[in-house]
Design a protein that fits this description.
The chain has 14 helices and 10 strands. The chain is an alpha/beta fold. The protein folds into 2 domains: 187 residues, P-loop containing nucleotide triphosphate hydrolases (Rossmann fold), CATH 3.40.50.300; 251 residues, no CATH class. The chain has a 6-stranded mixed sheet, with helices on both faces. Strands 7-10 form a two-stranded antiparallel sheet. Helix 5 links the parallel strand 4 and strand 5. Helix 8 packs across helix 14.
């Protein structure tokens, strides 16, 4: 049976060991506390892909008596390969060495060592003693400077000490590490010991395949969301004591809430897909995702200009005239107009009617029912795509050890964004989006090969997502 690579995360209490483990293992259930010594027993965090464990990281307690531990090891006279097990057997029932026995147990069974320090403080004599203990173990080992602040002010001092004791040195901010930085760290581990290279190469390949799979599922979820929202209709009964106007106002709110709920559900699925299960990613206060989907600010900030909408819609070519009902909860969007007839990219025609209220296709059956929808609007489709891209970009860069939001850890990709993300997509991608839209909403929508168009839309979104990491 092929041995699963294991790495013991070792270091002084409150140096960020648990944060490093949580981020590397993509596990936000790891308990992270500012109180030193919270970790008293080893916690094994397996990374499982497709039901199979591919690598494991073990969070360990900090050293309890490093000076006495080093003295015992220097006086040890037995075989080198039995050093650690002999130490554990000798001190197993000694409470003064409980933490040392616990943290050295995974190393004794063959785990590699990742030693974590806080680069914002200077090197102490106890650190040198701990590093010497790890050197004496003879196990392959990497050192990590966990950059809690913006700049590890004592980095040079740590690096000088690390060169005496470790095979590899890395800077790694566990609270801000991106997917690429996690992969780079694993790549570095391959160079620590040649025997690890085949297993770690396989692990890295599996990580990349899993990431690609998640993005494909995100694309599929997005297309499903667009299909549901752009074709969604609601029909309600008019009660004996209700007027048509009362029903319209009530239905207006219900219709908007249903659409927003569909979007939130899709974002929630994406969040869980990227293994954020316990802690919600808190976006900056100025994030566009805090805005109502139908707010004027959202559309002004992310919406395409009328000319860009016309060109994008006309990419599909041919006569694709559509009549579209729109909804805005009583808000005027100013420059954003309802799309009237679209007759090709070169002569796209936009009506002058403002998006200012629900237009009802009132279907009265026995004078007691009214229907609204579908809100089949090209601009809405691009707004939904932009908001999904913002959410995806934020979620993939939210490290799993990160528990709270602060302005110094701003990961919202709307910063300095003047237009919607989709406005920068190439013509080929916009043409795919346009054909997808017309397959749902155009007058001749029944003539389209919808499965093929849907697959092309998923592939187009997947290609965009790949560029975002």
């Amino acid at each position: 049976m092929e041995k699963i690579p294991e790495f013991a995360i070792i270091g002084h209490p409150n140096e960020g060991k648990s944060s490093v483990v949580s981020t590397l293992a993509e596990d936000d259930t790891v308990k992270i506390s500012p109180i030193p010594g919270e970790t008293v027993v080893c916690q094994v965090l397996p990374v499982v892909i497709n039901g199979q464990e591919i690598i494991r990281f073990t969070d360990t307690p900090g050293f309890q008596n490093p000076r006495e531990t080093l003295a015992w090891m220097k006086n040890y006279s037995g075989p080198d390969e039995l050093l650690l097990q002999s130490f554990i057997d000798t001190h197993r029932n000694d409470p003064d060495f409980r933490d040392e026995c616990e943290l050295l147990t995974p190393v004794a069974r063959g785990a590699g060592i990742i030693f974590v320090v806080d680069g914002s403080r200077p090197v102490r004599q106890s650190d040198r003693i701990e590093m010497e203990i790890l050197r004496i173990t003879g196990r392959p080992r990497m050192s990590i400077v966990n950059c809690k602040g913006e700049e590890p002010v004592h980095l040079n001092q740590w690096q000088n000490e690390f060169r005496k004791h470790f095979n590899s040195i890395r800077q790694f901010n566990a609270h801000r590490a991106t997917w690429h930085e996690r992969i780079d760290l694993l790549e570095s581990l391959k160079g620590v010991d040649q025997d690890w290279q085949p297993a770690l190469t396989k692990v890295i390949d599996q990580f990349k395949e899993e990431w690609s799979h998640r993005n494909r599922l995100t694309a599929a979820m997005t297309v499903e969301m667009l299909e549901h929202i752009l074709t969604f209709t609601m029909t309600v009964n008019i009660g004996e004591s209700e007027t048509l106007n009362d029903v319209k106002l009530k239905l207006q709110d219900q219709f908007r809430q249903k659409i927003e709920a569909m979007e939130r559900l899709t974002h929630e699925k994406i969040r869980k897909l990227f293994r954020h299960n316990i802690f919600n990613c808190k976006l900056p206060s100025n994030s566009m995702l805090h805005e109502d989907l139908f707010s004027e600010k959202t559309w002004q900030f992310l919406g395409l200009s009328p000319r860009e909408v016309a060109i994008a819609a006309g990419m599909a070519g041919g006569a694709a005239g559509v009549i579209i009902d729109v909804i805005a909860a009583g808000i005027s969007f100013g420059v954003f107009s309802a799309i009237g007839g679209i007759v090709g990219a070169g002569s796209a025609l936009l009506s002058g009617r403002r998006i200012s209220d629900i237009t009802f296709k009132g279907v009265r059956l026995g004078k007691d029912q009214v229907r609204v929808g579908p809100f089949c609007n090209l601009q809405l489709m691009y707004i939904l795509l932009d908001r999904m891209m913002i959410f995806h970009g934020s979620i993939i860069n939210w490290a799993h050890s990160r528990r709270e939001f602060s302005d110094s850890l701003d990961i919202d990709i709307t910063t300095n964004l003047k237009k919607g993300i989709s406005s920068r997509w190439d013509d080929t991608t916009k043409k795919v989006c346009s054909r997808f839209f017309h397959s749902l909403c155009g007058k001749n929508r029944f003539k389209y090969k919808k499965q093929e168009i849907r697959e092309n839309m998923e592939l187009a979104i997947f290609s965009v997502l790949k560029k975002s990491i």
